[in-house]
Fold these 2 entries.
Entry 1:
Amino acid sequence: MTDSNDVYIRCRGAAFSYNGKTALSNVSFELSRGDYLCVLGENGTGKSTLVKGLLGLIKPDVGTVEYIGASRSDIGYLPQTSGIPSDFPSSVYEAVLQGQLKKLGRRFFYSKEDKADAENNMRLLGIENLKNKSFGLLSGGQKQRALLARALCAANKILLLDEPVAGLDPLVTSEMYEIISKLNRERGLSVVMVSHDTKSAAKFATHILHIKNEPVFFGTSEEYMKTELYNEFLGGCGHEHH
């Protein structure tokens, strides 16, 4: 069993419902320091519900979602859609800096440290040259990099990524996976990624949680690759980008 100080999130028998209809049930797993957990499953099987549960946007009807060695404020979140309208009159730098908002507390202005952190994250993601460009004029891949930089500004311990490569071309997708893997290894950030991409999940993640309205597998990537479920999902929708 992992040392409890290293456990960031522990779900025990958690179930979530909308309007009295259960969307996801019997969820039990742990996320520890340095883990890279990939949440797999087809559309409508409860992946988005789990994301909302982890963010505290919905509460479990039964069971628990506990934050132990981390808190919800330690999460940097990259949503499925950017949350920034394409015509939003914001520079890339301003969009990235928004990730520092929850650190402001009672301050009205970003500190020197906040700004340095935002610039450092843009440099890390290779978009410092786009600093003054309008966010709406970026390509899909550039937008995802900017949004990942924004999520990094907010992330102290955990990066929560909801389909971060959806709609991106294969080259950009490959680059994004490498960047996320590097952040996990070198910054020690724990990653929770929702995905359809079984092959990449098995390649990069340390752990897999596969759900079909309830968990059908939770364990290491190595264990997952030996299951029928892996082969079945790989042959179905698992190799496509949705």
Note: The two ends are 36 Å apart (CA to CA).
Entry 2:
Amino acid sequence: MPKILEIITNPNKILRQKSENIKSDKIQEYDELINDMVLSMVKLDGIGLAAPQIGKNIKIVIINMRNGVVAMINPKILKKSIFKEWGEEGCLSVPNTFGKVRRYKKVTCEYLDRTGIKHKIEAKGLMARVIQHEIDHLNGILFIDLAKNIKTLKQA
């Protein structure tokens, strides 16, 4: 039965470490963790979640796409568009904080799915932004490192 995981919040050194690749013959061992990450992201109303955000420095990201939730293992960006655009971002690991981040408009990303099959997707707009944001987590980068006009909302 999947469970909701605790989200690591900034400042925490785990969020600043580079994550390790997962060996393809070990992917099945992470099935339960992936289920927990999916449930956690959905329950917390997130659009993406990276393993460092739950205290694991491994290369897994969960992204809520139009056609459902996708688990990306060892994702890497192969191609980036020439053009970039500004957009507002927030993060479960930096609660109640938002800022404008300049990201590539379109990216091509390669990853393994939870069965070890390699996929390549071309994403644009919000999906491209989310992929870049989540892969940044795997490299120890938070959106606040790149953002302008950072605003922190007061909690009620």
Note: The chain has two helices and eight strands.
